[in-house]
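Reviewer comment 2.1 asked that we show a complete input and output for one of the modelled complexes. We chose the magnesium ion case, as it is the one discussed in the main text.
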Amino acid sequence: MQTDFILNAAKAIQQAIVANENALESLDRAIGDGDHYLNMKRGANAIIDIQPALATLTPDAALQQIGLKLLSTIGGASGPLLASFFMSMAKTIKENGDDSISKIAASFAAGVEAIRQRGKADLGEKTMLDVLIPVSNQFVLLAAQHCDSKLICATLIDTAEQGMLATKDLIATKGRAAGLGERAIGHIDPGAKSCQLMIVAVCKLV
Ligand code: ADP
Ligand code: MG
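Response of the prediction step:
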């Protein structure tokens, strides 16, 4: 993986977040406090602002800086969670390298595991993990089978969409929506939606 790819991914993510303002805002207004779009936009814009500095870094160092920047800009529950994703991904790449799809998949999986541990949440709790865990599992599996990267990305786009849609029928047991009980049913989780959007944006670059 090249630092250039990370910069292009950051641009694609920023565009996808801004293009989905209404969806992200209304989902968090329905089962949260309505700030998820603003949180994500602030984070995505902050990464665009530091692109000149990121461009001089190795991929792992760039991912580490992205994590640190998100930690200080996003806020909310999602800020520290997404920050830990990028910092853990950076650490794994630094230790193991990123010269194969399997290694990139392993670093993605380490990032998702960091979110799981930091948020003390798991699959089925109506959070971003309902997108990230299935995508991570599928990514690792397909990479181990030496699948073509375009096929992997097409599959991950489908997996992310299924995970995002599946949050609609769940009761939340983590995050702000956990206090709503059955009233959260019928609404997609905002963090699951933003993660799905980010995954689609990055996969489409491959
Ligand atoms: P806040 O909830 O503080 O207002 P955001 O609105 O930015 O923060 O983010 C809300 C999203 O964060 C939720 O939709 C959910 O996907 C995710 N989230 C909240 N708590 C957790 C957790 N413990 N583990 C994983 N994801 C979580
Ligand atoms: Mg919120």
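The domain at 3-203 is CATH 1.25.40.340 (Serine Threonine Protein Phosphatase 5, Tetratricopeptide repeat). We note this here for comparison with the apo prediction described in Section 3.2.
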